[in-house]
Specification:
3 helices; mainly beta; flat; 30% strand
Length: 242
């Protein structure tokens, strides 16, 4: 048996038409708690939701089942199009008023959008490339002070801001750990996730010949082996989440 471990459950955002209709705060509930730990005693899985994504739970609402978030939106601009007077450092934050006057049209458009959606911030991403490399594919993280309908923001920004090439919501949420692969001969778990140098494979029932692959969320294969028994092994120090 070959088991490939993709431990995130990505948000799959439907392509249906969405609206900017406001949602009552009483309708919003946390989609999942952010508790990525693995309980080795009970075998219970952790859950992953670092952006505290909310979901509309009111069945009569126009936005029923829509997901809401504040952060982790990313916008891509055309090559060499960078709306600030310098490439933002990792974690550096700017507001709409900081957009360079060279891009006055974009600045005015975001000022209009702020009137509807509230304060918007731009943040530099983690990167280790030179500014000249970053400018070949300019991308900024965007976040809001208020919760926003994820689908609507992605579609609205893409369709109404000419200088934006692409908008995505970059968070993924789900059950990142509880890998309990069951067959007639085996039942095992792998933890922790995020990984901190060492991973543990724990068989609960019997043993089997399982081929296991560890793949990071960006698709890189970091480890593969045939496993027959419970073991701890050194793996994937630079992967973090897998």
């Amino acid at each position: 048996m070959k088991t490939t471990l993709y431990l995130f459950v990505a948000f799959l955002f439907a392509a249906n038409i969405v609206s900017s209709a406001p949602v009552s705060d009483s309708c919003l509930r946390m989609y999942l708690p952010h508790n990525p730990g693995f309980d080795t005693t009970t075998g219970n899985s952790g859950t992953y939701n670092p952006d505290s994504v909310m979901i509309d739970t009111c069945s009569g609402s126009a936005t029923y089942n829509h997901k809401y978030a504040k952060r982790m939106f990313r916008i891509q601009f055309p090559i060499y199009f960078y709306p600030f007077d310098h490439v933002l450092d990792s974690g550096e934050v700017k507001g709409v008023s900081d957009i360079d006057s060279t891009y006055l049209g974009l600045k005015n458009r975001f000022l209009e959008i702020q009137d509807t959606f509230g304060i918007i911030y731009f943040q530099g991403l983690n990167h280790f490339s030179s500014d000249s490399i970053v400018l070949l594919n300019p991308v900024l993280q965007v976040f809001f002070e208020e919760y926003q309908d994820i689908d609507f923001i992605v579609q609205h920004f893409t369709n109404t801001i000419d200088s934006i090439v692409k908008v995505v919501y970059n968070n993924r949420a789900g059950n990142p750990i509880g890998v309990n692969e069951k067959s007639e001969t085996s039942n095992f778990s792998i933890y922790p996730n995020p990984v901190n140098d060492y991973l543990t494979i724990s068989y609960k029932i019997g043993r089997s010949k399982d081929k296991i692959e560890i793949i990071s969320i960006d698709g890189k294969k970091y480890w593969k082996a045939n496993i027959k028994r419970s073991m701890m092994f050194r793996c994937c120090k630079t992967v973090s989440m897998y």
